[in-house]
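Table S4 entry, Methyl-accepting chemotaxis protein.
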Amino acid sequence: MSNIRISTQLFCLVFGLIAAFSILQFVQSKAASEELRQERFHLLSSQTQSAISILQYYYDLSQAGEMAEEEARAAAYKTVSNIRFEPDGYFFGFDSDTKMILHANPATVGKDFKGITDKNGYAFADAMMDIARNGGGITTYHWPKLGEPDNIVFEKASYNAEFAPWGIVLGTGVYTDDLNAQIWADQMTSIIADLVILILGLVAAYFLIRGITNPLKNVHDAMQAVAAENVDIEVPHTEMRNEIGMMANATQTLKEKVIERQQLTQAKIEQDALINSERESNTNATKAEAERQANVVKTIGAALAQLANGDLSTRCETLGGEYETLRQNFNNAMEKLEAAMANIHQKGSDLDATFSAISHSSSEMSTRTESQAANLEETSAALTELTESVSSAATDAKNVAGRVDEVSNDAARSNAVVDKAISAMSSIEKSSAEITKVISVIDEIAFQTNLLALNAGVEAARAGEAGLGFAVVAQEVRELAQRSAAAAKEIKGQIQQSTTQVKEGVGLVGQTGEALKRISDQINEANQLVAKISVSASEQSTTLHAISEAVNEIDYGTQRNAAMAEELTATAGGLAQDTSELMSMIQQFKLTQKRDEMRMAS
């Protein structure tokens, strides 16, 4: 699929959807045709049962002694034979030997149909007898219509049922050529509609796909041009607000980035050229300066080598140019350093005594400092223990928070489960109400069915031939019976639904109980963690007490150090005076007097 063009994939998708729709519509048409055919067969069954009810009426009269059996049979056969219904329906009957005993055409009565076949060689009469004795059913065969030539036959469907008291098979049929023609016309209409929809769908898909693929191709060409760093091309379809517009805008952004990169590249080339030019001029100047600096370094280096050997009388010769000031400063510094060293030697002996006193004080302070260090070590250990306790308390607090979160989540789920249980019980209540309504309808229909059945039987018996119209009443009775059956099915469905919802409610209640149990367990764990936190707090209190004692000792040592600091301050007073004289001699380096005058002053 990844290698197939998008337009082809879209065409296949549209064609597949239309084809699936056409197949579904054809299947529905076939189902509708079969339903129409079954409805026609059901009508035949209803009409046959109506005729049997007439036979039953005359049979009951003969059994009651109101009519002789032969007379009752003759009247019944005559009544049934005279019944007609549109478009060309009538009743016929066979005795146990497959002899025609009643028919709309009197010429057919008395004819033996045993073994007789239709134009296709089908022994339809024998098949009717077998089906009727097995509870009744439909037989399809080919037979001429009344008033039509005998050599022209049409497909006919007949429903036959046995009237057991007299041992006869009664039936009626209907020609299905008009039904087949109607079904064929419906199917052709469906096929033509499917073809029209298919053509229109493919045309619409063609224009729709072109509206997608053409902009994509334009954006693709622009993207390739930008990839080749052709920034003169205009990116199309940037004004669109769909995915194509997003791709076009991305290509435009890429184009701008390429332009920016080209500009940066050109600027870098120009900058590199300027830097190379400046570097060359600087190199020449640096080379000349380096030669002068090498001479200065060589001269200063020789003087510093003598200074390193302790010769303070060394001086620099002429350096020339801008380095003449450096030579003068170096010579002046050497002169002042030589005079300062003499004075520093004199003050060194005075500072020695002062340093001895400072050394004694420093030694004592060092001892006290060591003591303080030990106390600080104990304080550090106590702080470490405090840190561990605090860390443990924090961990327990974190665990408590986690458990509380779980408890909250379980409580939320428990609420949801309870809500579902309530909803399920409400659905059960509604289903029960619907069942009550349906049962009321069934009761009414059953009552009316009984009344209509009773009236149909009585009126048909009294009316004789005029009672043919009561066949319609019998048909209405059967329709009411069908409504009763449908209502019964609906009751069954509602009851099953109520049973399922009750089970669901029970399951939800069980889940609620389990969730509440988990919440209880987690609360117990949270209580245990709180107890641990309390123990940790007690340990922290003890540790803090130890830290307080150590801090008190440090405070006492600090006070003693303060007293010692006063002694050091007094000792440092003499050192400060000597240091002041030393600084006065060092400040002489900033003066510009000649070396001979400095020697006379010393």
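The chain has eight helices and five strands.
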